[in-house]
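Need tokens for this chain, all 160 residues.
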Amino acid sequence: CCRLPGGCRDTLALPFCHIALKARKSKRYPSFDDCKTLGDHIRRMRLKRGLRQSDVAPRLGVNPCTLRNWELNRTEPCVRYYPAIMNFLGCCPYQRGDTLGRKMMMHRTHQGLTQRQLAQQIKVDPGSVSRWETEVRCLIKGGMLKLLGAFGERLLKHEK
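Here are the structure tokens for all 160 residues:
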């Protein structure tokens, strides 16, 4: 009957106690305004669609443990996962850029590029990209032309 090596004498059994704990899962998920991090937005959309972490993780190109860490706000997603995350969410959960530097940063992250990768693509040093995004330094004509080449006219038109 018992498959343990020492038998079942160390196991406490209460044959008269037949309790099964059951509870309904809450159908409530956080509102868009309650979400403060990207992980919160991912969790909100996953719950809204009735999906498990193991269903969503492959769509984002990560394992379920990574997704769990994002949702619990233990870690932040790397920029390279942003395109898949924005595709899953169906939108960008952050405010649109109100300045050229913020627009530039949003377009860069939506494409999954780091500052270094964008700098290599448009042939400038990464420090310039950082200064442009934080608006420490204004874009000059040459830099603007390089950015328009990388992002197209979308950068100036408030599109995503």
